[in-house]
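Page 37, top half.
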Amino acid sequence: MSRGRLKLTALAATLVLGAVIPSEVFAQNLTWRACQPDERRVTCVVDGDTLWYQGTKIRLIGIDTPEVEGRCAAEQQIAAQATQYLTTSLNTGLRKIAFDGEDRYGRALARLWVTEGEVGPAMLAAGLAEPFPRRGPPPWCGS
């Protein structure tokens, strides 16, 4: 494919994606809860850094939280705390979502603001997340 055609294809994809996922949304107040395994996910929290908002799967930019099905008990415990923290924060009032593309799994990448401020930095400060991307293995289960 020629360089000019490649640029046009990338521009078309950006325009289509922009039509599907706006760059910024002033969110509605909703009741948030943990996603259930066998449900159709519309608006719920998957884990500490992933959620569904009105049918769009969102991955928080700039943080990484432990996996719910983690490798060790410590990771699973912190994952549960991070998931609860995100759920509680969203229930104080989701104010804004700033979208910024997609990750390699097709999730929309975004930053979230609640009544108290931006969620990602608050989770880092609470010790429930690590900066993303990071170097080295996840710290949840020790070295």
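Page 37, bottom half:
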Amino acid sequence: MLALIDSGSFLRGPFALFFLFASPAAAIAVALRGLDPFGRFLTSVAGAVVVDMLVAQGMLAAHRWSVESGIIAVAVISVLIPLPILVRHMHRRTTADKFP
């Protein structure tokens, strides 16, 4: 939030970097519930690096790089990653309610 409101706080940089790393890592970890904890951790860390690099590469290739748009792009991707799992879970839940 500090980066989006253009705050002059010294915490802006560290919090932005933490969000850029933790947001996709948490989204990928949610999507990989079936793995053991160590494999889930390694996969989510690698996936977070890949998401960040792909966003940066895409924005640089399009000549549209800015910190705010990078944070927004990573946030949108992080929301979209677990969305199919949540939709499938809701579908199973409603199907189970119809047929006891």
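Margin note: The mean pLDDT is 84.
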